[in-house]
Amino acid sequence: MKVVVCIKQVPDTKGGVKFKPDGTLDRGAMLAIMNPDDKAGLEAALRLKDQYGAEVTVLTMGLPKADAVLREAFAMGADKAILVTDRVLGGADTWATSSTIAGALRNLEYDLIITGRQAIDGDTAQVGPQISEHLHLPVISYAEEIKVDENAKTVEVKRQFEDRYHIVKAKMPCLITALSELNEPRYMTPGGIFDAFEKEVTVWGRADLKDVDDSNLGLKGSPTQIAKASDKVKKGQGEKVVPDSAEEAVEYIVGKLTEKHVI
Amino acid sequence: MSLEEYKGVFIFAQQVDNELSSIALELLGKAKDLAKDLDEKKVTAVLLGSGVGNLVDKLAEYGADRVIVVDDPALKDYRTEPYTHALASVIDEYKPEILLVGATAIGRDLGPRVSSRVHTGLTADCTSLDIGDFPLEPSPVRETKHKQLLMTRPAFGGNTIATIACPDFRPQMATVRPGVMQKIDPIKGAKAEVVEFNPGFEENNCYTEILKIVKEASSVADIQAAKILVSGGRGVGSPENFKILEDLAEALNGTVSCSRAVVDSGWKPKDLQVGQTGKTVRPQLYFAIGISGAIQHVAGMEESDIIIAINKDENAPIFDVADYGVVGDLNKIVPALTKKIKEALAAKG
C-alpha cells in the first residue's frame, strides 16, 4: 500500500506575523514548524506503515527551506520525500496551491492521500478537498479514525460533524483530511534524526508538474486576490462597572449582549 | 467566462435531518443586505436534500425570494460527491454572481470541492462581507472593478485580518462563520418562487457510503470550536457550583470551560482548560466568571471577540482584558443573568 501525506511548513503563529509590500505573507521572516494537523496525518500514515508495511511519501510545496519539515518527517519514519518549489508557484491561493499539488501527485502511485484538515496560518481547510476534486478522488474530511481494508481496497473513516459523526466507507484511492485529534504524533528517534540528513529529498519544479496549465499556478493562477491585509489592532481598555445590585449587573450585561446581537 | 451572465446572491441552505441549520437563515440575512448594493436584488436559496420541500416557506420568511430545490434520495444525508454535483449543477444552470456557504463541517467540505469543480475562488471563514471596488483604491496599473464582493476574514490564528476579492471569476464564493451574520425578523406568510431542479445522480468512484450515523452531545474537546464559552475559575467555589455556569451556557447555547486552578483542584477535566497549558480559544463571546486573570490564562483567551468578566475583586487583572467588566458576586449575578437571557430569547421566539 502506498500513502502520500501532504504536509506544510507553517509560520508558528505564536511569533510575529510579517507581510511583503504586496500584501502577501513574508514567510521567510517567520519561525517555521510542521503544521499540526499535517503531523497528525503523517502519524496516521506511519501507523499504516507499522500495521501493513505501507510506503509513506511526504510531499510539500514551499520555499527551499521547507526541506526542514521533510527531514523531520524522515526522522519520524517517512520513506520518501518530495519538495515542490519554484518561483512561479509563489503567491498561490488555495485554488492554485491545490492545482500545483495535484500536478505533483499525478506523478505518483498512491492508495491513500492524507492532508491535514487545515494549516494554522491560513485556517482555510480548502486545499485537501480541492486536491481531491482535481484528481477526481473521493474525499473524507475531518477524519478522527481511519481503518483500511487492504484486500477490499476500501477505507472506513470516522468523519466528525458538529453534533454527530458518520462512519464513512470509500473506495481507494481516496483523500482524507486529518484532524489533530486523530492521534498523538510520535517523536523523532535519534537514529531517525541521524538518517534524516543522509536521505535524499526529491526536488520538483514547475516542469515536473503533470497536466496542469500555467494559468492555474502561482499568483497569476489564483482566482482570489488580496485587497487588504493588516495586523489585528489590539483591543483598547474595556469598561468596568461596579453595580449596586445583581439586578443592575444583569441589566448591564443583557444590554451589552443585545447590542452585540448575541441575544 | 462572461462575468455579466452571473447575477444575484445565492446561499446554500444547509439542512440536517430535514431541519434548516441556523447558518442558512443567517446567510439569507446577509444576502439581502448585499443585494441592496447590486443590480439584481433577488436572493436565492439553494436547498439540497431528500423530502425537504417543507422547508421552503421558512426560507421565504427569512428573506429568500426564490428557492431552488434539488430533492433526491442521493442527498438524504450529507455526502461530498452528490452534494457537490447538485450545487455545481445549480451554479452552471442558474449562474449566481455570489454564493455564500456556511463555514460548518459540511460547508467547509462542500465549498472547496464545488469551487474547484466550477473553477472559481473561495474565501474561507469570512466574518464580514461587503460590496465595493477592487482594488479598494484606484490603481494606475489595474482597472477598478465596481460592485465586487469584498470578503474579510481572520488569518494566522486571528493575528491578522485580510480582505479578499475574486474579480475575474464567478460566482464569488465565501464560506461564512456561523453566528456572525444577522437573521432578519421573519416575515410571516412570506412566499418564495420555488424552482425544482434535478441534475440526475449517477454513482461514480467518488461516492461514499455512510455505514453509521452517531449523534452525540458535543465532546469536551470542543471548547475551541465553541462560539460562546462560559468559563469559571477558583472563584466559583466548588465543583457543584459550576451548575450555575452550566445553566448560563445552556441558555446561550454555549459551552463551559475553566481555568487551570479548577483543573488542579480536580473540579473539571483538563480538556476544558483555557490558557497557556490548556487550550487557546477564540470564541465570539467569553465569560470569565470568578477568574482572576493570570497572564497564563489570558494568553489562551485574549483573542475572544467579546470578553465579559464577573469578579468580586475589582483589582483582578481579568478586568484589564475584559471588554465589559462587572464587579460583584457571581453567585447572585449568574443565576439572575441566566433567567433574564432565557426570558429575552423566549420573547424573541
Task: Summarize the entry for a quick read.
Chain A has 263 residues and is of the alpha/beta class. Chain A contains 6 helices and 13 strands.
Reported by name, the CATH topology of the largest domain in chain B is Rossmann fold
Structural class of chain B: alpha/beta
Distance between the termini of chain B: 44 Å
Q: Name the biggest interface.
A: A-B, 78 and 92 residues
Distance between the termini of chain A: 53 Å
Report on the architecture of this protein.
The complex is a heterodimer of chains A (263) and B (349). Chain A is of the alpha/beta class and 263 residues long. Helices cover 26% and strands 28% of the residues of chain A. Chain A is built from 6 helices and 13 strands. Chain A is globular. Chain B folds into 2 domains: 3-196, HUPs (Rossmann fold, 3-Layer(aba) Sandwich), CATH 3.40.50; 223-348, TPP-binding domain (Rossmann fold). Chain B contains 9 helices and 18 strands. Chain B has helices at 22-35, 56-61, 80-94, 107-118, 243-251, 260-264, 295-298, 318-321, 330-348; strands at residues 9-12, 15-16, 19-20, 43-49, 66-71, 98-102, 122-126, 128-134, 145-155, 160-165, 172-176, 193-196, 209-215, 228-232, 255-258, 285-289, 306-311, 324-327. In chain B, the strands form 4 sheets. Chain B has a 7-stranded parallel beta sheet with strand order 7-11-6-1-4-5-12, sandwiched between helices. In chain B, β14 (228-232), α5 (243-251) and β15 (255-258) form a beta-alpha-beta unit. In chain B, α3 (80-94) crosses α4 and α5 (243-251) packs parallel to α9 (330-348). Chain B is globular and about 65 Å long. The two termini of chain B are 44 Å apart. Classes of the chains: A alpha/beta (263), B alpha/beta (349).
